[in-house]
């Protein structure tokens, strides 16, 4: 082997060897062309002597070996022609052994042996046995490996296999198997010996070189897998035990990992299924440093794919108890390797779970058993902080969701939440998001309170922050996205039974109210919507024999709504609570629940007075109050007057005069409802309009005093439109004179022509009036009376 930094010298040695090789190959070819056997052997032996070097790395030695291989194929053809010309193959076989050095002698012997087998003058097994034994003469690891590789390569088409021309009474497939196994065993010994040559500081370099040579050893197993005569019985009784014996006994980490993987990859899946106990029995005997995790994972992947492509073999998996054998083997491997990292253990169980879900999708008890075994390995270790291990644990927990596309099935796995508990807060949120996405993607409906409770336990990483470590910063955008996903989830929790649905929203309330104030503004609104939907589904009290005493009634749901909305002002989300109170009031109105509706309005008014201080927010809130109150029909005269009076008071207290004006004229709608004769007070409508006009005048005067110019007439035009609305409705107090007076007032304003938007607004209003005149009928007659 060459030392570090000797790369240039190695190139020189290779060049020198290749030059000498080329020269001798030339003379050998000349001897072949002249049918001179003696000189052909002479120059071929000299040519092959270049392979005796110890100065080249495996990569460079391979270059030289391939040159030799090409020349030896020519020599083999020459030997065959010689036998046809009368040369005894037995004499030829003995003649090549006269070469002076053992390495060239054995290469020539293997070449002559190949011809000897082709002539069939002796049993193939005798020649193969002689060759494999003779090759023991080379014990240098690198030279020995390539020599035996050459032997394997030239003999693979001459093995006495079933259907082969070399099969006979004296030659059977058993002889072929014995030859390949002997060669494999010797090659593996040479390969392992490479690890123990040279100084310890070159260990990494030796491992790299061995990795480059591993295919030379693995090809023997590939040859075995291609033999027609190696059926299941021979594989189980002879091949597998012999190969595993060599793997276990070599006690080499690199060899054990590679050869176990070779067995899994080259032999048929059917054989693995029928010999699982033998193959798995070797796993605990491997060196602790062997990456058995990858080996077993690949085995389970192969078996899963086999089951997926051949559904008719599924009964055999149950027959051979594949799951139990794999589960027990994993347990024994983990027990044998006391220092196995958590990542490896979790990955093994993740692979086993995927195998179980693919092969036995109907056996939830198997899946739960895997999760239980995983818990057993994780017990006592607390939260997992290894990034790769937690990622693999998320993969394990995601597998049932991906397989069944139904969270309800995952909820049946009793060990599922116990495994989830080993994740830290961040990864619990990740897993919760995965679960919610699965529900949304597959439109899974969770229809019982019990299942909802179990689901909320699984996603508590998103709905509860009580166990989050201090100082943990969560990106606001990520947090909002997570909470919005929870909000969407609420709409998938649904039952056709009102009683069960009420239990579901009660469970949600209990979890959400303990989830921390910052989450409430996301989770409470959809919960309120679900409750309001439930109210609409309830039968009328007259149709319900139990009325308010029923287990689920509108009254109980409204009490429930009041409790959850009360939590919002402390969130703080008073504006959201304000809107929800008004929505609930409108729902109570449809249920003819006057006391409840009044209570919701009262709460909304309290929030308006105590929590909403921004002037813009007040204007928006007041519009919502007036709009909602205008649609209410459940209130008696006293309650309605109280609420209306309050709304009027709020309108007059707005900061800006234009806002006051608009709020006051909007209040006029509270006193006239077409479909309710009890709410038709023309006097108060007119009073509102006149008060709005007074405020508009005041606003214009203030603008004039502050800026030295008259203010906009837009407010007057807006009031005119209100006059026209109520005039069209036929309110007696809104007369033709009052409308004409407003029109004249606007026309007299000097600022009308200086404000294009106001001028356009006024022109549009006049065109509307003209349009109404042209419609004819009662409305047209009323507009005809107005003189513009």
Automatic annotation (TrEMBL):
Cell cycle in keyword set: no
Alphabetical list of InterPro entries matching this protein: ARM-type_fold, Vps35, Vps35_C
Chief localisation class: cytoplasm
Subcellular location: Cytoplasm; Endosome membrane; Golgi apparatus, trans-Golgi network membrane; Prevacuolar compartment membrane
Pfam hit, one: Vps35
Assigned GO CC terms: cytosol; endosome membrane; Golgi apparatus; late endosome; retromer, cargo-selective complex
Gene Ontology terms: biological process: intracellular protein transport; retrograde transport, endosome to Golgi
Gene3D superfamilies to which the protein is assigned, alphabetical: Vacuolar protein sorting-associated protein 35, helical subcomplex Vps35-C (1.25.40.660)
Protein keywords: Cytoplasm, Endosome, Golgi apparatus, Membrane, Protein transport, Transport
Protein's membrane topology: Peripheral membrane protein
Domain of life: Eukaryota
Function: Plays a role in vesicular protein sorting.
Similarity-based family: Belongs to the VPS35 family.
Protein name, as recorded: Vacuolar protein sorting-associated protein 35
